[in-house]
Amino acid sequence: MSKTVITYGTFDLFHIGHLRLLQRLRALGDKLIVGVSTDEFNALKNKTSSICFEDRIEIISGLKCVDMVIPENDWQQKKRDIEKYSADILGMGEDWQGKFDHLSSECEVVYLPRTTGISSTKIKQNLSILGPEHREEFKKALEVISNLVDNLS
Ligand code: C2G
User: Fold this and answer.
1) pLDDT truncated to tens, each residue of the chain (153 aa)?
2) By alpha-carbon position, which residue is closest to atom 12 of ligand 1?
């Protein structure tokens, strides 16, 4: 009997944590459907993504472990999707632990451990360090270092 797994996410600045979650979810069944949050829905989640929806859903649909992609437009669509696609498993990362238990009357609901040490937020923070507001400090620090090096030589 083939098993269909469904999951949802923003998948902004796609990273190893996203990939490993999708690979592990795919391994739970024979077909993986991924709902990718639209930019409008993210606004409802008070989230802005660096990569636009069109690019994020194209990236996800290009993955070997993904069989089908759909847009995620609202919180209520999971129940409809589980029925529409006859999903056997709804799988999410553990940061959503318990949040979708109410759907366990529709299908099995699983939460998988997250990959530690990586997140889109963290990537953004690292990038912002080199942002224009820090550029002056960065330049001063470089000057100090090059003066030190000059004095040493
Ligand atoms: N994830 C992970 N390891 C990380 C980062 C993320 O396993 N280091 C998982 C999350 O737990 C989530 C998925 O990757 O299941 C996508 O994460 P986000 O893009 O942050 O998704 P989010 O914005 O939380 O959207 O309706 C549910 C929402 O669409 C979930």
Assistant:
1) 899 999 999 999 999 999 999 999 999 999 999 999 999 999 998 889 999 999 999 999 999 999 999 999 999 999 999 999 999 999 999 999 999 999 999 999 999 999 999 998 888 887 776 666 666 777 888 888 888 888 887
2) 93
Q: Tell me if 21 CB under 6 Å of ligand 1.
A: yes
Helix (H), strand (E), coil (C) string for the chain? CCCEEEEEECCCCCCHHHHHHHHHHHCCCCEEEEEEECHHHHHHCCCCCCCCHHHHHHHHHCCCCCCEEEEECCCCHHHHHHHHCCCCEEEEEHHHCCCCHHHHHCCEEEEECCCCCCCHHHHHHHHHHCCHHHHHHHHHHHHHHHHHHHHHC
**Does the CB atom of residue 10 touch ligand 1 within 6 A?**
yes
Mutate to test the pocket of ligand 1, among 5, 10, 81, 82 (most ligand atoms within 8 A of CB): 10
